[in-house]
Design brief:
This protein has 253 residues and is α/β, with parallel strands linked by helices. It has a domain of 170 residues: Vaccinia Virus protein VP39 (Rossmann fold). The chain has nine helices and eight strands. Strands 1, 2, 3, 4, 5, 6, 7 and 8 form an eight-stranded mixed beta sheet that branches. Helix 2 runs parallel beside helix 3 and helix 6 crosses helix 9. The longest helix is centred in the last third of the chain and has 19 residues. It binds benzoic acid. Benzoic acid binds next to loops.
Length: 253
């Protein structure tokens, strides 16, 4: 995963992430009572909602900080610390659900992720997921790249945002048959006057690693300025999200 989370700030300013996850949950066809793994459960908000829908659910996340927060907030639910690209379940589940996680995993590790998912599902079990798709936050990343270049630096976008055509074969190679896939734009409102600067500071960390803090502030300030015309509307900041939403069924054991 390409990030260390600041759990409290994430919960306070970016609670739209789990809010949008409710729509993803509606793709689950397994009945109440089915066993669900919430993969990359973060602070457990959606794990709670899955439990409230009647599923037998466990949450898994690579961040010990977020897992601790989830355990404290929802002591009646089960959470495990675990790496989405390197896990094995003793008891296979009917559904693997995941919201806003897969784009954090580099392209070369995606086959490991999908292998773990396929290995953990029962026959006819389903993967229901949403993550950043092709073109996600393209304006923001282009603006960052431009400001890095002005300072003689190169910018490596730290996310994987595939098309449907690129991702479906990866799933099929592991016996996960894609039954539904859609790529759609979702302009997403950010909180507060510093919404975009806060978003960059929270989510785009690795390109700034080792950079002097005054240069980092300068690049973020200039990036935000350059995006005001397109991403600031009627007193509100927006991020140009593109979502990839998929339902796939395990057809081969
Ligand atoms: C996303 O949910 O698409 C996303 C969030 C933060 C950084 C990158 C992508």
């Amino acid at each position: 995963m390409n990030i260390d989370w600041e759990a409290k700030e994430y919960a306070a300013k970016f609670n739209f992430v789990p809010q949008y996850g409710k729509g993803v949950m509606e793709l689950i066809t397994a009945p109440a009572g089915s066993c669900v793994l919430d993969l990359g459960c973060g602070n457990g908000t959606l794990t709670r909602q899955l439990a409230d829908e009647g599923f037998k659910v466990r949450g898994m996340d690579a961040s010990p900080e977020l897992i601790n927060l989830a355990r404290t907030t929802y002591p009646d639910l089960d959470f495990d610390e675990g790496d989405a690209t390197d896990f094995h379940l003793q008891n296979k589940v009917d559904v693997i659900f995941s919201n806003a996680v897969f784009h954090w995993i580099d392209r070369d590790k995606q086959p490991l992720l999908i292998h773990c998912i396929a290995d953990s599902l029962v026959e006819n079990g389903e993967l229901v997921c949403e993550f950043g798709g092709y073109g996600n936050n393209a304006r923001i990343h282009y603006a960052l790249q431009t400001e890095f270049a002005k300072n003689g630096l190169s910018y490596r976008m730290p996310f994987y945002f595939p098309t449907i055509g690129e991702y479906a074969p990866l799933l099929e190679q592991e016996g996960l048959q894609v039954r539904f896939a859609t790529l759609f734009d979702r302009m997403t409102e950010l909180k507060g006057e510093d919404g975009l600067a806060d978003w960059i500071k929270m989510f785009v960390k690795t390109p700034f690693t080792g950079m002097d803090s005054s240069l980092k502030d300068h690049i973020i300030h200039k990036t935000v300025q350059s995006l005001k015309q397109t991403l600031y509307q009627e007193g509100k900041w927006y991020a140009d999200y593109v979502r990839l939403r998929i339902r796939a069924v395990k057809t081969r054991c």
